[in-house]
Design a protein that fits this description.
about 40% helix; seven-stranded parallel beta sheet; binds NADP nicotinamide-adenine-dinucleotide phosphate; globular; Rossmann fold
């Protein structure tokens, strides 16, 4: 089977306005794909041939099935869903005054929204000969971060969801891939962490992984995590706790 991106196709990319998503947009367009770029600030993306901005708030969960249905109607050739939108709040769970709204939005955007998009778009994706669902996960799915308890939990949930989805679709040609990223230099990580890779490097690695039809696309330092998990999980906990 060839890469889902081997020939010009239609890609729905969430989180297209910033960081890794924004680095993926020009690369996908340069390859001749139509990119449905979904984010709240999608209208601010510079116009380019092949770019279809869709302004939407993915925390509006009840509205997502209808939104996905209208995208599928307008783009029946949609073959790749790339779930990159997420938010990371540093919420001190001991602070009862901190906003429950932030927790609700973080869980909705990072975990429930990708699941709803997958469910609503599967009939369209499965009609294509070489489709893919690609979910952006994190090393924090394996070893949580102290200040990002819910974020880490949503990435662990997304990782688990992606594995279950892959099993459910084993008999189909759809590639179901999880991307495990290290720290990437984006607005999400501004002002923290060391040894970050660039969003451009992350985007290149994601596309190479999809091209190779890898189901686990481990990028940069995240490639060491399986070994650390097997041999020294205490080290993984120590390294990622303060990231
Ligand atoms: N950066 C890292 O070190 C790192 C590490 C591991 C994993 N990841 C994962 O990689 C992905 C991209 O991260 P990033 O660092 O590139 O993040 P980012 O620069 O903060 O971009 C987040 C994107 O999500 C969109 N978004 C936020 N809230 C939204 C909402 N309510 N509705 C629709 N879209 C929304 C934003 O667009 P609008 O504001 O226009 O809506 C933006 O395009 C995420 O899944 C993240 O968890 C990142």
């Amino acid at each position: 089977m060839s890469s889902p991106l081997a020939h010009p196709t239609t890609v729905l990319l969430t989180g297209a306005t910033s960081g890794i998503g924004a680095a993926l947009v020009p690369r996908l367009l340069d390859r001749g794909h139509t990119v449905i770029a979904l984010a709240r600030r999608a209208a601010h993306l510079p116009a380019r041939a092949g770019l279809v901005p869709v302004t939407a708030d993915l925390t509006d969960l009840p509205g997502l099935p209808a939104l996905a249905a209208s995208i599928a109607t307008d783009h029946p050739g949609l073959s790749v869903l790339l779930n990159a939108a997420a938010v990371q709040h540093a919420i001190p769970l001991t602070d009862l005054a901190s906003s429950p709204k932030m927790l609700i939005e973080e869980a909705a955007l990072n975990l429930t929204a990708p699941a709803l998009l997958v469910q609503a778009l599967l009939p369209t994706l499965l009609r294509q000969p070489d489709g893919a669902v690609v979910n952006l996960s994190s090393g924090l799915a394996s070893f949580p971060k102290e200040a990002g308890g819910l974020y880490s939990a949503t990435k662990a949930g997304l990782s688990s969801f992606t594995t279950s989805l892959r099993w459910q679709l084993e008999a189909t040609p759809l590639l179901v891939a999880e991307v495990i990223l290290p720290l990437v230099d984006t607005p999400m990580t501004a002002g923290r962490g060391r040894g970050k890779i660039s969003a451009d490097a992350a985007a290149e690695a994601i596309l190479s992984g999809i091209d190779a039809r890898r189901t686990m696309i481990r990028v940069g330092a995240a490639r060491a995590l399986p070994l650390i998990s097997a041999l020294a999980p205490w080290l993984g906990r120590r390294l990622l706790r303060g990231t």
